[in-house]
Amino acid sequence: ISETVGLKDVAARYVKLTLPGDRVSVELLQFDHPPITEISSPGLANTQGYRHMAFRVNDIVQTVSFLKQRGINPLSPIQEYAKLSKKLVYFRGPEGILLELAQYPENG
Predict the structure, then answer these.
(1) Does the domain at residues 2-103 carry the CATH identifier 3.10.450.50?
(2) How far apart are CA 99 and CA 41, in angstroms?
(3) Quick check: pTM over 0.85?
(4) Tens digit of pLDDT at every position of the chain (108 positions)
(5) Labelling 50: which of 87, 91, 96, 98 has CA 20 to 30 A away?
(6) How far apart are CA 54 and CA 100, in angstroms?
């Protein structure tokens, strides 16, 4: 996750909350390391408060290519998390907020 969020030596906890039979979910992350030393603008991934929004996409490679053609570059290459069967990448939105694109398996 360090490369994805642009922080070194990340230690974090993660929980995904989803109602049975629903595709809407809320993901909560608590960053244990690195510690927050100051509030920065735009906020880093481990800054407290509303820091990023995620969008589920069907084809992350195609979506990233589409955005790159328009001058919107990701913060890292697409990351793949086999444990979660998830591919993701972060961008910065127009106001500096972190935007995440996430691709899940077809049945996920």
Answers:
(1) no
(2) 15
(3) no
(4) 788 778 889 898 888 878 778 777 777 778 888 877 665 556 666 666 666 788 889 999 999 999 999 999 999 999 998 887 899 999 988 767 788 999 998 755
(5) 87
(6) 4
